[in-house]
Design a protein that fits this description.
The structure holds 2 protein chains of 2 kinds. By secondary structure, chain A is an alpha/beta fold. Chain A has 14 helices and 14 strands. A 5-stranded parallel sheet of chain A has the order 2-1-3-4-5, sandwiched between helices. Chain A has a 4-stranded parallel sheet with strand order 7-6-8-9, with helices on both faces. In chain A, helix 3 packs parallel to helix 4, helix 8 packs across helix 10 and helix 12 crosses helix 13. By secondary structure, chain B is mainly alpha-helical. Helices cover 72% and strands 3% of the residues of chain B. Chain B starts with a helix and ends in a 10-residue tail after the last helix. The chains are: A alpha/beta, B mainly alpha.
Chain lengths: 411, 299
Amino acid sequence: MGGICMKKVIYLSIFMVGLLGLSLFSSSSYGANTIKIGIVDTYSGPPATMSQDVLDGFKMVVNEINAKGGILGKKIEFVTRDEKFKPDVGLAMAKELVLKENVDLLMGTISSSTALAVSDFARKEKIPFLVTNSRTEKITGEKGHRYVFGIAENTAMAGRAAAYALSKKPFMKYWIAGDDYEYGHSIAENVWNNLKALKPGVQLLEQTWWKVGESDFTPYITQIMSAKPDFLIAATGGATMVTFAKAAKATGLVARVPIYQHTVIDYGVLGPLGADGPEGVYGTAPYLFYYPDTPANKAYVEEFRKAYGRYPQMFALFGYSAGRLIEKGFQKAGAVDKEKFINALEGMVIDSPVGKLEMRACDHQLQLPMMFGVVKKSPNFKDFLVASDIMMVPSKDFMPTCEEVLKTRKN
Amino acid sequence: MDLIYTIFSPKLMSQIFVGLSRTVILFIVASGLSLILGVLRIPNIWHGSLYMVGAFMTFTISGAIGGGSLGFWMALFLAPLGVAFVSLIAERSFFQHLYEREHIMLLLLTFAFSLVFGDLVKMVWGMEYKSVPVPRVFQGSVHLFGGLPFPLYNVFLLGIGPIVAVALWLIVNKTKIGKISRAAAVDREMVGAVGINVSWVFAFVFMIGCLLAGLGGALVAPTVNVSLGMDHTLIMEAFLIVIIGGLGNIWGALLGALIFGLAQSLGILIWPQFGIVFPYAAVIVVLLLRPTGLLKSTW
């Protein structure tokens, strides 16, 4: 075999590996008298489980609406596209949905980069875009505009809520570790900046950042343990949540250093871990299927379980809320008109499993509550751990004010 | 004084051991990749998918046998065999017809397989995250150096590594089929000319290589989140390791895995904020010094 051939093969291997996961388009029928919604999200790879949860929550509302005869006599129809966590692919899909499929609304995406790219396109095309899962605060913050709505809790909200709860604890020496991408850094920065403001004496020992999808945390954890911080802020997201929790338990980190991980108390993380859950870790999440123990939440969970045979993760709430906003938005607008729909959504209040939620008019961010809790075993659930000592922080206590948000917008 | 303390500190020893246990998984997977590259000349991108399938099979098998320790041990045995079986079917029905073609064709085929299996895994196992509990004997950690805990499961991995390496050495060097396969790697036609059925030798080697991918997946399963996409990061690292070790050289894979694993764990010690960079920097250094890899490439 010649050297050239070998080189060629190596280059091609690398190229192919890079190509892995390029997308396939799937199309669907086009109904005439419908309200058509285009959903761009990641339905493959590690984020797929969360996107599917959003979609399941959304489908539940859509089926209910369509069973009642639709909105304004029109049924809701939706098409989905798998952008495989690639912003350029996602943007191309959003364009295709608007230009070829003639969708009335866009929804998506878990990828912050895709969400920002699609948001920019939505602004130019004047298409309402409901962001159901991206966590970056830029969506409704510095890159916010008339046509974009933030439905998931963003990193600014989570960071404030966590900092508020942590400032009440006696910890002083902190270590920050997390996934080396936008979400990880953004969560860490928000928790830390808010914490410093609330409690100026806190000290940051060191930061560690690992690559997204890291599978072995042991070397990082031994390093952290030998520094003996009072507290660890673990800024992980997605699939890393579970892997990190396992490593933290196996190394005994949970027993030595208290940890905060946003969304660790979500069922999507604790469910798969089973009895292996990281007892003692602090977490925040906008939704828990067992708390608050209200009739509304119970009914929602029951309906969800009947439809999909599993408990809802927090993400289904975003899909559900999007569905309710679409329902009430068009009803109030009285016509399938994009501008009227946006006017209707501003300041709208919807009923949800966690109580009434308001779509704030000034920045188009849904006002979600935040649950702060610690992972514990529960007598009610044998197969997995749950959050306990739950503190429900109402949105008014941690939402950045309208002035603060609008200040970040440049134009 | 400070420097001397840092050099011989328990922290360093602990990081080295942690790095070595990571090396074990990387070596097991990369050696399979390298074996297939060396003998069959297939740059097998599908290898990562088989690692993922191995982890998912471990989840299913251990769950089916009650999810306890026994389940895991059975899965550790059965999942690699299951993966090997899948690979044998693929080799017999697809790969064997392409050995005479260019490498590019084989590469395309493995790439296609990795895409197909990415979706197949989603269809069979669904999208939710999955976790395999650590077997009871290896739960918790021991205190090795200066009170720094070291997970017991990693101790187990450290034990497995040499066993796999020795077994592989025995198969390649001491068995008849191993000798034939080494000969076939050098001159395929000649081996065929002396009356040996090269086709089945290749099938056997391919199966062993893929079995190693499955074993890697089974071993890693209790420490990670078994999820879609776990094939992608791994195949990258495995290819880098095989390239710096010398294409097709199993001991090169061991050396490459050692460099990669240790560079990561020691990098974290030196500069936690940028620990991520060290293994890749090590790869660049090796390739600058020895562009064809550290050990002799069989290509």
